[in-house]
């Protein structure tokens, strides 16, 4: 198993946000993590990405323990994430941010020439062509991020995470707040990342059309625990899932 979480438990005071969670993602798989608000999805992503250290449990990536690692150490192991709420209070440009993302990764791609003695900037050209253009951000590349719409900032955050050329990509509601056209475009980019890089992806997402378009398997969390693990056909008829979402007895 590429990503393996076992018995992950994290409490905040009296609240058990994640309660003995087991979750597996195979190499190259895209798994959706869904569940009602407050289910513990973001908290779990925060554990895997090193922001929180759970009180108990283990998380391994390709056999190595990753709990509590810094973003840099995770970057070196090929792990990258996006954020549910994107920051906007700085004046870095789109290209600056994507370059930062690239510098945090391991740099698996052969670098092109450094462009000495020319005014060309090969890295900027490569990032624009391979990342910003497919996300509709090529024309915005020199604009400060705080000038962009929410949807474009979400796309920049995704571009930053992908720029690291991760082997494991953790996405927290990547299309929240986007129009359905933008959401479908972003979903296609996410699938494209897996196809190009063979990347493994764990994605928190509410929009079921995006989940169905993007993911191979669905895990449902409720009140900190896993209540379902299976296909999108099965999830719709699962009695426990229907009870949690629809209040069926
Ligand atoms: N830093 C924190 N301090 C206190 N409580 C938190 C913190 N982060 C999350 N929680 C609580 O943990 C539970 C799960 O939250 P969260 O992981 O954000 O859920 P989800 O992402 O599934 O909506 C909620 O009850 C939330 O209030
Ligand atoms: Mg959340």
UniProtKB/TrEMBL annotation:
Keywords: ATP-binding, Nucleotide-binding, Transport
Domain ABC transporter stretches: 3-248
Pfam families linked: ABC_tran, BCA_ABC_TP_C
Cited SUPFAM superfamilies: P-loop containing nucleoside triphosphate hydrolases
One GO cellular component term noted in the UniProt record for this chain: plasma membrane
Alphabetical list of InterPro entries matching this protein: AAA+_ATPase, ABC_AA/LPS_Transport, ABC_transporter-like_ATP-bd, BCA_ABC_TP_C, P-loop_NTPase
Matches recorded under Gene3D superfamilies: P-loop containing nucleotide triphosphate hydrolases
GO molecular function term, any single one: ATP hydrolysis activity
PANTHER family to which the protein is assigned, alphabetical: CONSERVED COMPONENT OF ABC TRANSPORTER FOR NATURAL AMINO ACIDS (PTHR45772:SF9), CONSERVED COMPONENT OF ABC TRANSPORTER FOR NATURAL AMINO ACIDS-RELATED (PTHR45772)
Name of protein: ABC transporter ATP-binding protein
């Amino acid at each position: 198993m590429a990503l393996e979480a076992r018995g992950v438990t994290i409490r905040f005071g009296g609240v058990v946000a994640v309660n003995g969670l087991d979750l597996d993602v195979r190499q190259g798989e895209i798994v959706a993590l869904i569940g009602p608000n407050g289910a513990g999805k973001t908290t779990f992503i925060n554990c895997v990405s090193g922001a929180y250290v759970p009180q108990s449990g283990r998380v391994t990536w390709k056999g190595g323990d990753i709990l509590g690692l810094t973003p840099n150490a995770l970057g070196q192991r090929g792990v990258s994430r996006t954020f549910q709420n994107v920051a906007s209070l700085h004046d870095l440009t789109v290209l600056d941010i994507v370059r930062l993302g690239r510098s945090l990764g391991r740099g698996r791609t052969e670098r092109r020439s450094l462009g000495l003695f020319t005014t060309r900037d090969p890295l900027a050209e490569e990032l624009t062509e391979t990342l910003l253009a497919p996300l509709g951000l090529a024309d915005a590349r020199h604009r400060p991020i705080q000038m962009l719409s929410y949807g474009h900032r979400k796309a920049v955050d995704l571009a930053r995470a992908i720029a690291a050329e991760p082997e494991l990509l953790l996405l927290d509601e990547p299309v929240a707040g986007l129009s359905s056209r933008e959401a479908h475009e972003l979903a296609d980019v996410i699938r494209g990342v897996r196809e190009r890089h063979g990347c493994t992806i764990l994605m928190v997402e509410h929009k079921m059309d995006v989940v169905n378009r993007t993911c191979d398997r669905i895990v449902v969390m409720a009140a900190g625990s896993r209540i379902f693990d299976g296909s999108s056909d099965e999830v719709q008829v699962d009695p426990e899932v229907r009870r949690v979402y629809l209040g069926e007895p």
